[in-house]
User: Fold this.
Amino acid sequence: MSDIILGIESSCDDTSAAVIRDGWLLSNVIASQDVHKAYGGVVPELASRAHELNIVPVVSEALSRAGVAPGDITAVAFTRGPGLLGSLLVGTSFAKALGLSLGVPIVMVNHLQGHLLADFIRQEGVPVREPAFPYLCLLVSGGNSQIVRVDSPLSYTILGQTIDDAVGEAFDKCSKMMGLGYPGGPVIDRLAAKGDPLRFKFAKPHIPGLDYSFSGVKTSLLYFVRDQLALDPDFMEKNKEDICASFQKTLIDILLDKLIKAARQTGIKDITIGGGVSANSGLRSRIEAEGRKRGWRTFLPEFKFTTDNAAMIAIAGYYHYLAGERAPLDTAPVSRMSDF
Assistant:
């Protein structure tokens, strides 16, 4: 008998539902929230209200596209955290209610674990290509920057992580500083493609081990822009492509320096990336270039699996379900989770 997992993701501002049968993706529906662009970032209260409006139609559409009736569901997987508490509460509460009404178990998933396992989402018509255990994952997003050794679908070790800001936050702050809008990552990436990455230099931190730091890079950009604008009020407009290209290169250099070090220390050759920043074209091309140079097997998630989505929650939930894990009905969402 097939195991059909309904995944629900509501950690931030995307409401998503997906259906997986025995590891194969049947549907993945995402409803995004454009309201936050006017505020330059996600407004938690607005996000939770939008989730309340979106959750029922999104789940209904996911089941319809998958050709699955509610009674066919084996288990409901949901994001417990980390994320915005109000947003998580909507998804968690819906999963509990649906599981209880259908008489099926619920399975809680760490949102970050979903990103780590995105390469294991199988799709009809797409060749199966999966990393071998153990592998390294560079997990980069608006809230996290980590190097994780993945020993099995349910066993992980964080080798290094940011001690202050995440790299995705650095992209967003750069965009806001330059008046380019939100979210900043795609805007910076697009402008960087037209600029000279060697034109300007920004400070790089010297952090021991495999940990990251991005606060100093942001400060370096802030002072640079301030000083240049004092000399020429049009400096930003004249040089925004080169600024973006140089800033992006600096961030990618920082990420890759530690990833190369981790690969060397562990001897692991299968390298993956995950999280929203894994959609960055500069990072993707650098990872592939380093892979060719160093004999890595590199795995880049499809763009639709880089942002928050329920397909990754469903595949992680599938492995938890197979391991016999079940979440009690009194499970509460948490904004921070230290363990996968």
The first strand starts at residue 4 and ends at 9. The beta strands are 4-9, 15-21, 24-31, 75-81, 106-110, 135-140, 145-152, 155-161, 270-274, 297-299.
